[in-house]
Write a structure and sequence with these properties.
Chain A: One of its GO terms (cellular component) is plasma membrane. The complex is a heterodimer of chains A (140) and B (801). Chain A has 140 residues and is mainly alpha-helical. Chain A has one domain. Helices cover 65% and strands 9% of the residues of chain A. Chain A has five helices and two strands, in the order ααααββα. Chain A is flat and about 60 Å long. Chain B has 801 residues and is mainly α. Chain B has a two-stranded antiparallel sheet with strand order 1-2. The longest helix of chain B has 32 residues. Classes of the chains: A mainly alpha (140), B mainly alpha (801).
């Protein structure tokens, strides 16, 4: 049987970018406003799930050939890496710091080491959610 | 400070890391040549300690490893430790050299072999040169594990795996007993330092824990040193490659138990139990081992039981030596000879037994069999191996002019001497000790003769040998030749060892006596026509008679029936353990999630209710509560409604939708309570999890079939109602009790100041409680890998069917 998903597919093509952008925005803004790696990651997985629903698993895989297990691992490396990085400055494991920097176009911005940690969280959340969904989805 | 001594102890571990790389990238050169460097350097390094340690000297180096916890890495070299360090590295070097010719570089997994061997070497060094009992215990277990790995080196063989498992189970069981014993000692003396414990030995002697601690430590030592009735693992461990048998299972690892007994002698020697247990089990093992050895037809089997028996002999001498510690001074203290004999025999045993194992390895390598019924007449074909066998075998039998004769005489002397000991009713039943020792020595003589003459003399049975016998290459003969040279050298010049090794080691075993003067050990061949000499002559005469008779008269089995009692007990208990744990597991691990929920929930409820009411924490205080707003009332009704639908619906789709409704309502609650982060998270989680449910639909059974069978379960109902009740009660009590000011104020205040973030929730997640988050994402990652492997593995299994 062939499903007629033309509306869902068309909408998805546009809206998934918007959600993804929003997820990235929420991720970067997490330190000051509601958001952060966890929510950002979940929202990004929601985009991917939407793509999976609108198209099929094979199509999404061709478009985004990502190994989500690897993504989880890279995320963990980021998170642990920020922890281990503390050792080089003779401070306890997982010490975080921040500072204000001036950028050419964006003006003055705050940069934190927690962003790297949060990136780890972000990647692990996406990796985990998508590994589980993909594995169960493929299991026919 | 981290010194060269510390480096020397961990050097084998560091080298073990390099072995696989060398094996992989330089395959043309046998990996053993690189490994050989390590024990040679270490041996010469430890030799440099000889002058410092002579007399009663010792060297102690402390490296503060984790100073904040008071955990230090203390290396301690005294006479006893140095003796073992020299044995480990010296025999280690010879064994590595021998293994280069024994193991083929094309056919064998050399990287595994040498990694395990270096692991063992480092662990053994750490064990003998440590001042801390916990460190000693850790290294003790590493030796067990590396022994397991080495025995199962040819892991495709069923017998190797059996032997490896057996040795691991028995020695690790003893290791656990040892750990408990150490903890008991530390609880009395308040320190884990061996030096500190020896100083507090009076305190321990008065404690009721003295006897339990002693028994547990002896259990550990006896299992490791293969004492009766735990000796059963050693013969099965002979499945290991011969270099391993020579190194671990005769020269070093099995002597760790002896090391421990020697170390603990100053602590426990005051006890009659110690004297009788160590001496008694030592002699029992001695005679049991020598009687069992005669029955063997496998050359390595003979050597295994002979090792068991010789270890018993060394232990019995240490036990008898404990008598010396009952006197305050060295003068007129004849019992110190037993300790000297124990140490001397320890060294001698390592030399001749090492050479004999290597000789047997050569026979095995060049003829393809180790069965003495098929061997014979090799004397002319393998003259050098024959020489090695004669010197090693005659030394073990206790014949002059080899070192074994000297220590055997000293053994007899100490056993005769001990009968004069006036305490512990030794003067009445002590006469048994020299008799048992003498009888066992006769059988020792018999198996030594079997080993030499059944292999090398008689008729050559070429048709029974798998390969054509010929002499081994020179490299393979080099190590055993060095060892038999030592056998002869020590035999003629035993007194070179006395001031350098034997007396310092005695000083470690009897520290208080060593303060009062020199031990004055003097070893020589001719004692005049003493009782010991007649005992030796008796051994030779009777032994020869039995050996000659044994050829025709193979009725030993009638006198001494093949006793598999202890092996059967081991096998039975293993099977029983397997069966009973399987029964226990299948009784409660049903594989049904609802059963697990029952366990989890009932336990949680019991625990929580108990602590809630048991500690009197239950209060209801409505003063601080805000009135319920209409929004909240409506949302609560929706919550209750959707959960009721969830429970009673018969359609799966409805269930998923009501579950979604439940989740979204909770998200609305978060919005009402002004928690945007939580609301956002909840919303996205609900979305993703509903999708997951849709995916899982495919795999679920038909809900109607399942529901038709479901009846009302009163127990389940009670449990679920209690869970709800408990959570509510705890919630009420928690909000009614304020013992501490809330931590939220701290976070609100410091979030921007300390972490530069306005979003407190996120700052807590990534900064203040970053460790929690780190572990949480680790759990997530593990869970996803779990799901992945569960499903993928099941698929693979399905395809196989």
């Amino acid at each position: 049987m062939k499903y007629n998903d033309i509306i869902l597919q068309t909408v998805t093509k546009f809206i998934s970018f918007l959600i993804f952008l929003f997820a990235v925005y929420i991720f970067f803004n997490g330190h000051q406003e509601p958001g952060g790696g966890f929510i950002g990651g979940l929202m990004t997985s929601a985009v991917l799930v939407l793509l999976l629903l609108a198209f099929d698993m094979e199509t999404v895989r061709r478009a985004l050939p990502i190994d989500y297990k690897l993504m989880t691992a890279i995320g963990l490396v980021f998170a642990v890496g920020t922890g281990v990085g503390s050792f080089f400055f003779s401070v306890p494991f997982l010490s975080q710091t921040f500072g204000y920097f001036h950028f050419p176009v964006l003006g003055e911005l705050e940069l934190t080491t927690t962003l790297a940690f949060d990136l780890g969280v972000y990647l692990v959340v996406i990796g985990t959610a998508m590994t589980i969904i993909q594995t169960i989805g493929e299991d026919k | 400070m981290f010194t060269i001594l510390h480096l020397a102890i961990i050097a084998p571990f560091l080298a073990a890391v390099l072995v696989p790389l060398l094996y992989k990238f330089i395959p043309r050169i046998h990996t053993g040549w690189f490994v050989l460097i390590v024990p040679i350097i270490l041996f010469s390094y430890f030799l440099s300690y000889l002058p410092e340690v002579s007399g009663t000297g010792s060297v102690m180096k402390t490296f503060e490893w984790i100073p904040s916890l008071g955990i230090n890495y203390i290396a301690y070299v005294d006479g006893l430790g140095l003796l073992f360090a020299l044995l480990i590295t010296g025999i280690g070097a010879l064994v590595v050299l021998y293994s280069i010719y024994y193991l083929d570089k094309h056919k064998e997994q050399l990287n595994n072999f040498y990694t395990y061997l270096l692991l063992f070497m480092g662990a053994m060094l750490g064990l003998t040169l440590s001042d801390n009992l916990i460190v000693l215990y850790t290294f003790w277990e590493i030796t067990s594990i590396s022994s397991f790995l080495l025995i199962s080196y040819w892991y495709t063989k069923e017998k190797s795996r059996y032997g490896a498992l057996k040795s691991l189970l028995i020695t690790v069981m003893g290791g656990f007993a040892l750990l408990v014993g150490f903890v008991l000692i530390a609880s009395v003396t308040g320190t884990y330092s061996i030096r500190g414990i020896l100083e507090a030995s009076d305190q321990l002697a008065d404690s009721p824990l003295f006897l339990p601690a002693m028994l547990l430590i002896l259990l550990g030592a006896f299992t490791k040193s293969a004492q009766f009735p735990f000796h059963i693992w050693l013969p099965d461990a002979m499945e290991a490659p011969t270099p391993v048998s020579a190194y671990l299972h005769s020269a070093t690892m099995v002597k760790a138990g002896i090391y421990l007994v020697a170390r603990m002698t100053p602590l426990f020697a005051v006890s009659a139990y110690w004297f009788w247990l160590v001496t008694g089990f030592g002699l029992l093992t001695l005679i049991w081992g020598s009687l069992s050895a005669i029955r063997q037809t496998d050359l390595k089997g003979i050597l295994a039981y002979s090792t068991v028996s010789q270890l018993g002999m060394i232990l019995s001498m240490l036990g008898a030596g404990a008598a010396a510690l009952h006197y305050d001074s060295i003068d007129n203290n004849a019992y110190t000879i037993a300790v000297a004999a124990a140490i001397f025999h320890l060294i001698n045993h390592a030399t001749y037994k090492g050479s004999l194992f290597m000789m047997v390895g050569i026979i095995d390598h060049e003829t393809g069999t180790r069965d003495i019924r098929r061997l014979g007449g090799l004397m002319t074909l393998m003259p050098i191996s024959f020489t090695i066998a004669v010197i090693g075998g005659f030394s073990m039998a206790g014949l002059p002019p080899f070192n074994g004769f000297l220590s055997k005489e000293m053994f007899f002397m100490s056993m005769v001497e001990i009968t004069h000991f006036p305490q512990y009713s030794v003067d009445s039943i002590g006469i048994l000790l020299p008799i048992v020792a003498w009888t066992a020595s006769i059988f020792t003589f018999v198996y030594c003769m079997m080993l030499v003459f059944r292999t090398f003399t008689g008729k050559l049975q070429k048709e029974k040998l798998p390969t054509k016998p010929h002499e081994a290459p020179f490299g393979m003969l080099l190590s055993p030749l060095i060892l038999v040279a030592l056998v002869v050298f020590i035999g003629f010049f035993p007194n070179t060892l006395v001031p350098t090794i034997i007396e310092p080691a005695m000083a470690s075993i009897m520290p208080e006596l060593a303060q009062t003067g020199s031990f004055g050990v003097d070893i020589y061949f001719w004692h005049g026509f003493s009782l010991e000499l007649f005992m030796t002559i008796g051994v030779v005469l009777l032994g020869t008679a039995i050996f000659l008779a044994l050829q025709k008269w193979n009725k030993m089995h009638v006198i001494f029936p093949e006793n598999r009692l202890f092996n059967q007990a081991y096998n039975r208990s293993l099977e029983g353990l397997d069966r009973s744990s399987h029964a226990l597991m299948s009784w409660h691990m049903t594989g049904l999630v609802r059963d697990y929920f029952i366990y989890i929930f009932s336990f949680t409820v019991v625990l929580l209710l108990f602590s809630l009411f048991g500690t009197g924490a239950f209060t209801i205080d409505v003063e601080n509560m805000v009135p319920v707003s209409p929004y909240e009332a409506i949302l609560s009704l929706v919550l209750v409604g959707s959960s009721l639908i969830l429970m009673f619906t018969r359609s799966r789709l409805k269930a998923v939708i009501s579950l979604g409704a439940l989740g979204y309502t909770v998200a609305l609650f978060f919005v009402l309570f002004r928690a945007p982060d939580l609301a956002l998270t909840q919303l996205t989680i609900e979305t993703v999890s509903v999708t997951l449910f849709l995916l899982c639909f495919y795999h679920f059974p038909q809900i109607f079939d399942a529901l038709k069978e479901t009846k009302f379960h009163a127990v389940n109902f009670v449990i679920s109602a209690t869970v709800g009740l408990t959570v509510t009660l705890i919630g009420l009590s928690a909000s009614g009790t304020r013992l501490f000011p809330a931590i939220s104020d701290y976070f609100l205040e410091n979030s921007y100041k300390e972490a530069g973030g306005n979003n407190v929730v996120n700052v807590i997640l990534v900064d203040f409680r970053g460790f929690d988050t780190l572990l949480e994402i680790l759990v997530l990652a593990i869970a996803s890998l779990g799901v992945y492997s569960l499903i993928k593995l099941r698929l693979a299994g399905g395809e196989n069917k």
